[in-house]
Amino acid sequence: MFDPTKLAISDKQQGLVISMAALATGLSACYYLWSPSKNSADDNTTGKNVYREVPTAGSSIPYFGHLFSLGEIPGRTVTKWNQELGPMIQLNMGSQVWYVINDPMLAHEIFVTKGAVTSDRPIHTFFDYYTHGGRGISFANGSKTWKKSRTAALAVLAPQRVNDLTDVSLYEADNLVEQLLERTALYGHVDPSTILQAASLNVVLLTCFGKRVESVEDPLFKDIMNFVIPTVKHAGSEGSLSQFLPIFGLVDALVGKKRVFADFVSKVRDPLFARLIKDALSGDKDCYVKRFEEYDLDETDLIVIMSDFLAAGSDTISVTISWLFVILVSRPDIQQKLRNEVDAFVKVHKRLPTFEERNQMPYLIAVQKESLRFRSITYFGIPHRANKDIVVRDYLIPKDTVLVPNMIGMHMNEDIYDEPYVFNPDRFLGNTGTMFSSANGNIAKRDQYNFGWGRRICPGIHLAEVEMFHMCTRIFANCVITGSLDENGNEVLIDMDAASNCGIVLTPSPYKARFIPRTDSPLRSL
Ligand code: HEM
Fold first, then answer.
1. Model confidence pLDDT, tens digit, residues 339-390
2. Which of 39, 54, 428, 518 has CB atoms 3.0–4.6 Å from 366's, for a disulfide?
3. Ligand 1 atom 42 nearest Cα
4. Domain count, the chain
5. What does the alpha-carbon distance between residue 385 and residue 123 come to, in Å, rounded to a whole number?
6. Pocket lining for ligand 1, CB < 6 angstroms
7. Which pTM does this prediction carry?
8. Separation in Å, CA 161 to CA 297, 307, 318, 412, 462
9. Ligand 1 centre distance from Cα of residue 228 (Å)
């Protein structure tokens, strides 16, 4: 049975060295010895009001050290604390106070009902460099520029516009299946993650810039991954030490993360996107860059917005499907049911289903939802920040508190899901509504919480859903997925608990699988 608190850690290389963490821990301890408690019961009063205490996780100082040095998977420890201490807990992170929430109803009240004051982003050193002082969508505060950029993104990602991209998405899904089958035939097995990244990248690359990469060996794919992977990593909750302990600011600027971030943005990100934008504007293909010209955005705005699209639109989908493969390798029974469902459709219609026909694939929809619930691809989403004092359910949330949705905690919350540690798609059977409508609808009926909240809710939900549906139908119609074989020809199962902290996203640890062509698919006789 899966226990999120026991996720194995495979990536121990991140962050600073242990000695820095020890120093940080020491300084952090001093800071809290000198500074008054921000949330003791006595302090929780304003005039006549007495507020409920937000319990402080006693070990937030060691946690801080963990985050910076030991390859900690942040959602792991914190989920245990939420389970022990309550739906909202406080972590003292140097000069920042974090409130971590694992109750979706409370999260809704904070992020949606009080969205006017809880939709800024936290102080994060990488965000400062990346946004060029507040541009773009994902990491900018809720300024006028952000509103303009988000409006443009919502327009191009609206379901109606995304439906026009069906052919692109289908082409990339077919190509993905071909690549997985070919590479398995060639090498005996394949780690699907990079191929998945190329497939999902191509959909956003084509729509944003009218270009695609031919394969994972394409130099453009490598250039873009040299942007996507560090961006997702740097934007993770750890950021840089100086955002928690300003005393490190100068060191950081000279030799630390600030230097790394500045160089990354000026030498890697900006030149790459300036080139992509120039080529797209001078080319003859219709693409988002051209449509964004309507919104009175300058070149720097476009660089940041397009980087948001490529970073958010490629890794998220590929990691989601990668987790699904990991789960299905050890669940041949579920794969069989998925094949039966897609075969039944093909026998009647003599073709594969489109996204509009998804109601005829209830089991597939249930498996997709359960997979996203069972393995949240982000552990903290992208945290928000309160820009004023607010009161929610008698809790006082002071200005500048970092508001962290604990995605693993929410999806493993027993008050919301029966037996949450069991992978059970049946819990979503009969619920074929789109994740898009669920995420934007009544909180009590929301299926899962992976797409975030309120004014910041992911604008790419529909695109993600369409792409994932196309990939899954094509994969189950054409392949059986198994583990690789050891030297004795025995199948090697993949450890579902082995995960790597890649910054914002939590990916499966590298694995090998086999994609075996189906000989019994009704597609063969068409
Ligand atoms: C399985 C796929 C995906 C997941 C799980 C996901 C999840 C998220 C989450 C958790 C956030 C932060 C929400 C918040 O702050 O409350 C977000 C924001 C965002 N996502 Fe996605 N996303 C996915 C796919 C996509 C795709 C395909 C795109 C489109 C290209 C996209 C574009 C964005 C953008 C631009 C933001 C920033 C929104 C803002 O800050 O206002 N995402 N996403």
1. 999 999 999 999 999 999 999 999 999 999 999 999 999 999 999 999 999 9
2. 428
3. 460
4. 1
5. 8
6. 137-138, 150, 153, 157, 204, 308-309, 312-313, 316-317, 320, 377-378, 381-382, 450-453, 456-460, 463-464
7. 0.91
8. 21, 20, 22, 34, 10
9. 14
